[in-house]
Amino acid sequence: MSLTKEKTLELLWQRMAERGDFPSLQRSVTGIVSAMQSENTSTADLASSVLSDFALTQKVIRLANSAMYAPFGCNVTTVSRAIMILGVDTIGHLALSLKLLEGFGEVAARRDDMARELARATLAGAFARDITSKNGIRDGEEAVVCTLLHHVARLLVTYCFPSEWVDIQETAAEQGISDSDACEQILGISFPELAEAAARKWGLPESIATSMRPIDLDGDAPLSHADWLCAVANMSNEMVTELTRGADASRLAELAERYADRLALDISEVVSVGEEMARDTSHQEFIAISTGASNTRQPPAGKPLDSARRLADGLSEVRAATGETDAVGLLNLTLEAILQSLGFVNCAAFVRAPAGKFFEMRFGIGRDVQPLLGLTFPEAFEPDVFHLALTNGRAILIDNAREPRIVPRIPLWHRQHFSNVKSFFLLPVRQRNQTVALLYGDWGGALCAGGIGAKEMEFLHHMGDEISSKLESAAQQNAATGNTADSLARKPSGATGGR
Predict the structure, then answer these.
(1) Which residue ranges form the domains of the chain, and what is each CATH number?
(2) How many other CB atoms are there within 10 angstroms of residue 4's CB atom?
(3) 424-438 residue pLDDT tens
């Protein structure tokens, strides 16, 4: 079949919407980009966008702790802390690149052709990250996003036009042309044009969208930022071809020579990074997949086995950040540390509103809590577990909320909005013998295996104490300046209000 560019794009977006696999990708990418571009963006906003996806969160944290970011810090256990150390742009682009890969992961697990293309994209992104980090390039993570987007076009065609993808491969082989030229013959659009269209549809920055266009490396005029991004992406993609061929040193040197001068890179270093990737066992897995193997992975669920160690690390991180952020930032960081340590699906903070005599969900992380920001319940005592935690000032674990004797003690609003939750946890934050906030976390439809031990409870209460101390300090500062502002005031987005 032969189509025009416009018709191909129309069919592409239609098929993506019909199959339902990619609307979540578009929402995630749009959310991350919006958080990065907003003039009022905060660590909490970007962290919330990343934390809406558990697997993505783990990858961001793992990379933030990797050797390439070692000069900036270590033992990072939360996205919030990673953003404080590395900055909004770095973490935002890092999250974007991981999300682009993850968006195709589920489909790739079922189709070998998708798996091969996804493996190639992963390798190209890894090379772009390695070569820029070794050279201390500030825009390295942005270059990774551009490198992956060069592959997204191929992934989209593989996914949405499977029969045409086969025709493209056969046409390229028969005519001795690039698969991009073959794609233009058959679908009326080249891979760079399709990648640029996808970048614009997802609302990515103009520099990234423009970097999808081919460039001419001849000449000595300085490269524009978009051309530099494109050159890094092209070099990274060509490196993948050499890795799958065995990473011959002479061929790597020839590749490096074509790009090194224009990108101000050392030829030997480009060769070295390629050779290191070929030896790295984690990259060898993707090299194998790109030549025909397959691989599937499943993210962990439920409370981690090493939760006590995670809580200890999280507490250290919370304490380290106390002097660097305000009460809102510290509360968000604490929520995230608890979520990561205990493996929560949802984590939220209900904050006391003295004037209205109710507790309001002002902050939240997780799939189910984001739409519920603004949810309230009355401060006046009622015979349920939430008010028991408020009154006693001690943490409470409900290990089975569906047990008949427990159900009457679960408030109706919780049963309505969290109907699938089996186990949840409550941690009151006290100030001057009064509960001013209640931290909540649940494991979704999973039960909390093994409960929460005494040492874990100790770490959790210490985290609550850190928030309390921060609030007390803020209150004293406000009193000294005559400021009556609420230290935890924040306008919730998507608030539902009411019980």
Answers:
(1) 5-41+87-291 (1.10.3210.10), 306-481 (3.30.450.40)
(2) 11
(3) 999 999 988 889 999
